[in-house]
Amino acid sequence: MTGDGERACDLLAREKLRPHASRVFTGARRWLWQEFCDPDKANEEALRRGQTRVSRQLWHIGRKIMEVDAFVRANARHDIREVHPELVFLRLNGGKPLPSKKSEEGEDLRLRLLKRAGLREIDRWLAEARIGTGAKRDDVLDACAVALAARGPHGCVPEGAPLLDAHGLPMQIWF
């Protein structure tokens, strides 16, 4: 994470995902969740600092981001990599943009791509997710895409040596 929420890897991921660049969050900044409990006050401060506001969606997963951030910083010697599921789906789809994951067409395509990649139990996982887990279908599909990248990533943005954040963590997204 950077102090202002702008990272080259996010910009490159957005470029790859065009015309659906909004699928990449901008603005995760440690200070947001360290200093504020209220998204409106955090956004006021971001604007005062000349930075972009944080979306409500990002705000609501911020505490989890901070948990992961703390774990990664405490385990920096391990090879822990950031993955973006939409970049994985783009790769699985031969570089062709995908429809929204919230649409029936988008969900069906992602499901077919994951099955083609070898995830045979996905129908069962989707059925089990409906039973009290709180996970939505697109969450399960995204988790499966991330698992594929963990099994064998095929690329990253930026390529080569990544830039490092203030804590020495790589700012690079794998797919």
Concise summary:
The protein is 51% helix and 6% strand. The chain is mainly alpha-helical. It folds into two domains: 8-78, no CATH class; 85-151, no CATH class.
Features:
single chain; about 180 residues; mainly alpha; 2 domains; three-stranded mixed β-sheet; two-stranded antiparallel sheet; 5 strands; globular; DUF429
Structure commentary:
The chain has 175 residues and is mainly α. It has two domains: 8-78, no CATH class; 85-151, no CATH class. Helix content is 51%, strand content 6%. It is built from eight helices and five strands, in the order ααααβααααββββ. It has helices at 8-17, 30-35, 39-48, 56-74, 85-92, 104-116, 122-129, 137-151; strands spanning 82-83, 156-157, 163-164, 170-171, 173-174. It has a three-stranded mixed β-sheet with strand order 1-5-2. Strand 3 (163-164) and strand 4 (170-171) form a beta hairpin. Helix 5 crosses helix 8 (137-151) and helix 6 (104-116) packs parallel to helix 8. It is globular, with a radius of gyration of 17 Å. The model has no long low-confidence stretch (mean pLDDT 92). It comes from Bradyrhizobium lablabi. It holds the Pfam family DUF429.
